[in-house]
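ok new one. same drill as before - structure tokens go in, u give me an amino acid for every spot. 380 of them this time. try not to just spam alanines like last time pls lmao
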């Protein structure tokens, strides 16, 4: 009986069961999410270009993600969320880099929300919106987008929660290059580089929308204009999204720098699906921007943090995902993908990647709740 009482105390302290004994005593839990997310892959790469016979074929097993996630309400109006990458590569900006999310939400009413803390930049598109652990192979701009930044945001959503408008002020992704700006590790905020982000999400029937207009401040204190519009059709047995992205450093850049990304899934059952994904990205800008550096050392030709000047990237591939019915939180995936990169001097490089991996979503909160609630009572 004593063990059962201790277990029930832990359950009430660390899970989402809520009750109020009196108006003065609030047993609203601090944790409604407690998770460990892990992913490990076996990768095979084969790289070659049209000006060299050198071919590299590295391969092997490696741990790709190990995330710790907690979140929940603090009271009726305040909640929080925290996600930490435990085995991610050390940050290039500060020790805070590997913290993806650490924010507090304030909801004064069901229509309004204010958020403060480490957050993802409010950018449209469905590849960008997916948790990184679920992006099996990515586009070039996605690989170079340092999106998790300290921010403050305010949002309005409709009564039916189908539409939301959000405005966010955050650090610019250009602070990732703080060492080039002359600031030490962890002091990039002194650069004064901000981003201003306007975001819309909506759902109309089977159509989902994720649109944004963004202004990213550059080291010369001018702005990159960034527009991302994402559309997804979602049905029971299939879905497809299309992301259209455009970014420009000046008026002459319009039409030169863009990305088109699409992915389609076919669901043969709740456990098994196959997908195909493709993307084309280019940076054809010829506008030289003021450089930046440390002291009197100035680097020139600094164009774009998402794609090098004069390059285009064609990425395509197909794969599968399988969630066993006996353990739906476990996922087996496999894919084959190729990226063809063409530079301004017509050097073509092909990078073939074959991958098989496992992902495990360890929902500690749910396992703890299920285990304790299934234990027989000592009074039975």
């Amino acid at each position: 009986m004593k063990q059962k009482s201790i277990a029930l105390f832990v359950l009430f302290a660390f899970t989402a069961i809520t009750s109020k004994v009196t108006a003065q005593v609030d047993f609203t839990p601090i944790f409604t999410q407690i998770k460990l997310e892990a992913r490990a892959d076996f990768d095979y790469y084969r790289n070659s270009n049209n000006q060299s016979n050198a071919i590299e074929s590295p391969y092997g097993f490696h741990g790709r993600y190990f995330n710790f996630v907690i979140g929940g309400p603090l009271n009726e109006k305040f909640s929080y969320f925290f996600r930490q990458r435990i085995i991610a590569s050390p940050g290039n900006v500060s020790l805070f880099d590997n913290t993806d999310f650490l924010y507090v939400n304030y909801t004064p009413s069901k229509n309004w929300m204010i958020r403060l803390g480490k957050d993802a930049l409010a950018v449209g598109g469905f590849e960008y919106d997916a948790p990184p652990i679920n992006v099996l192979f990515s586009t070039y701009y996605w690989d170079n987008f340092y999106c998790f930044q300290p921010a403050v945001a305010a949002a309005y959503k409709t009564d039916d929660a189908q539409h939301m408008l959000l405005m966010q002020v955050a650090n610019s992704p250009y602070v990732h290059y703080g060492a080039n700006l002359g600031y030490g590790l962890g002091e990039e905020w002194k650069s004064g580089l901000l981003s201003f982000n306007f975001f819309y999400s909506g759902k109309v029937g089977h159509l989902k929308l994720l649109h944004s207009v963004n202004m990213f401040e550059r080291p010369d204190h001018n702005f990159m204009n960034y527009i991302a519009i994402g559309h997804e059709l979602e049905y029971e047995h299939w879905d497809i999204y299309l992301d259209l992205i455009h970014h420009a450093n000046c008026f002459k850049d319009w039409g030169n720098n863009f990305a088109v990304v699409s992915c389609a899934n076919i669901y043969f059952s709740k456990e098994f699906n196959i997908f195909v994904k493709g993307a084309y990205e280019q940076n054809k800008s010829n506008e030289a921007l003021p450089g930046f550096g440390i002291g009197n050392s100035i680097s020139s030709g600094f164009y774009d943090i998402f794609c090098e000047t004069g390059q285009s990237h064609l990425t395509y591939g197909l794969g599968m995902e399988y969630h066993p019915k006996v353990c739906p939180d476990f996922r087996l995936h496999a894919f084959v993908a190729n990226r063809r990169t063409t530079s301004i001097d017509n050097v073509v490089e092909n990078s073939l990647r074959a991958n098989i991996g496992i992902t495990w979503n360890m929902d500690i909160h749910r396992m703890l709740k299920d285990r304790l609630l299934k234990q027989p009572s000592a009074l039975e």
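The first strand starts at residue 33 and ends at 49. and btw Residues 5-26, 290-302 have pLDDT under 50 and may be disordered.
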